[in-house]
Amino acid sequence: MDKTNRGVALVTGASSGIGYAAARALRAAGFDVFGTSRHTTAEGPDGVTMLPCDVTDDASVAALVDEVLDDAGRIDLLVNNAGVGLFGGAEESSLAQAQALFDVNMFGVIRLTNAVLPIMRRQKSGRIVNLSSAHGFIPAPYFALYAATKHAVEGYSQSLDHELRTLGIRVALVEPAYTRTSFDGNLIKPDRWINAYEAARAGMTVAMGDAIRKGDTPETVAETIVKAATDSEPKLRYPAGKLARQVSVLRRFVPASAFDRSLRKMLRLPV
Q: Which residues are catalytic?
């Protein structure tokens, strides 16, 4: 397919933030784009067909994929972007809350991937771009459960890419750092507050707010998603934005003790 007709893309969580910017950027890059939202009335970018989907529901995912196939006849790109954040000490969340988070951020990725892979295998081509995070490869105090979901997405994606290469399908990870979205305003709160964590949690709240205000725009991440989707020789990982690239390099080459001190200082935690 040429650059003016790159095929059919499906982007989850496309009604706002990174997903909205990605759907718009992929449309501009030549894809016929379908976006999803949990809400049936959600609007997407111009030229993007929006469809409802709950990534935690097998029937909803199956109905989505069937509708895209009925309309477009194929799926060439899946961008697994839908996700939620949870902010608090790991101990402050019940097991049920942790499971609900994994159901969206990890098992939602698996549901969509399993639904489109038979199509891509028949086509003998396709690409899957999974939205990870810098928290997918570094520690994330007070985001431990969220980071765990992103670490899981990283391990799954790396392994899946090896399984699919001989079938004409590739998997890539896009890893943003802090991004100027409503992420912090939409964070899930722990279902049991513990006073012992209050002081450190308060400092972390301030640090996170500052980092998001200074973070990359959703459009910066969207550009990286387009690159991951269209590279003729795709890489496994695509850090998105200056901070994500810096952290990726530092994590590999800086001694663990020095990286640990730097991380705690940045997050305003006692060193």
A: 15, 132, 146, 150
